[in-house]
Write a structure and sequence with these properties.
The chain is mainly β and 288 residues long. The chain has one domain: Fumarylacetoacetate hydrolase, domain 2, CATH 3.90.850. Strands 1, 2, 3, 4, 5, 6, 7, 8, 9, 11, 12, 14 and 17 form a 13-stranded mixed β-sheet that branches. Keywords: Hydrolase, Metal-binding. InterPro entries: FAH, Fumarylacetoacetase-like_C, Fumarylacetoacetase_C_sf. GO terms for molecular function: hydrolase activity; metal ion binding. This is Hydrolase.
Length: 288
């Protein structure tokens, strides 16, 4: 089952069940937190109450499939070949941090080019959607609602700008407004084999493949990442977890994003984000 967060001029913002073949979205009644636990528990379409007639999928705006009240957790350093691009050794445990909600954009929205960076980079990722706040660290996959696609766009020069001895400035690098694609929808976990999914991830820029990897290459799988984060800061229903990116990013190849680039991030069995990089504004000069 595909679940999307949509916007329509006549309806406003709503969650819906998506039927791509029929070009339809059918609105869901009630709050996400009311019906998501049932879906995560495997009760499928019976967990949701449909409300009103179907709308054309082609006529709605696909929003990031996360409510503004929820958190965006990002796990980094989770693909060995990606670490080689950074000249880093593999850490002994997962690394996680928070991304600002304001950094998110939908599946077809433009990527804002932040004026402070010259090194705008891409990172295709499998993103986990948490379906219940009841997390069992011994059975972490039980809390998963499903999966979506992420493009963790990063400002690499800002990432390196942290003071010596302090470390990387991940806030500046990863939370730039309206840069990070998320969507186009959530595909529920029952659509995949049991356990941590093994899916192909690709990212193209203007049709050229820049990243091509598999979630099978992750150092820590989905369950291990959920357990790690949960023991440090509890998940809530509707939170999302980026799980890391394979090799091929601009920091490794020297090919950074430019104005007008068409960026397509895809995860097998889920879908594709297609976002165009916007025009870079001039930075505001400081007043003296």
């Amino acid at each position: 089952m595909k679940l999307a967060r949509c916007e329509h001029p006549a309806v406003g913002i709503f969650w819906a069940v998506v039927d791509v073949a029929q070009d339809q979205v059918t609105p869901i009644s009630g709050d996400f937190r009311d019906w998501a636990p049932g879906v995560a528990a495997g009760r499928g379409i019976s967990s949701v109450r449909l409300a009103g007639p179907a709308l054309a999928l082609s006529k709605v705006c696909l929003l990031p499939p996360i409510e503004p009240i929820n958190r965006v957790v990002v796990a980094g350093a989770n693909y060995a070949k990606h670490l080689v691009e950074f000249g880093l050794n593999a850490p002994a445990q997962p690394v996680a941090f928070l991304k600002a909600y304001g950094a998110l954009i939908g599946a077809r929205d433009p990527i804002r080019f932040p004026p402070l960076t010259e090194e705008l980079d891409h990172e295709v990722e499998l993103v986990v959607v948490i379906g219940t706040g009841e997390i069992d660290v011994e059975n972490p996959m039980a809390c998963v609602l499903g999966y979506t696609v992420g493009n963790d766009v990063s400002a690499r020069d800002l990432q390196r700008s942290g003071p010596p001895g302090i470390g990387m400035d991940l806030f500046a690098a990863k939370s730039q407004d309206r840069t990070t694609g998320l969507g186009p929808w959530i595909v529920t976990k029952d659509e995949f084999a049991e356990g941590s999914p093994r899916l192909r991830l690709t990212l193209k820029v203007n049709g050229e493949v820049r990243q091509d990897g598999s979630t099978a290459e992750m150092t820590w799988d989905v369950g291990q990442l959920i357990s790690f984060v949960q023991q440090r800061s509890s998940f809530a229903t509707g939170d999302v977890l980026f799980t890391g990116s394979p090799a091929g990013v601009g920091m490794g190849t020297g090919l950074y994003l430019k104005e007008g680039d068409v960026v397509e991030a895809s995860v097998e069995g889920i879908g594709t984000l297609r976002n165009v990089v916007g025009k870079k504004p001039q930075p505001i000069e400081s007043q003296t």
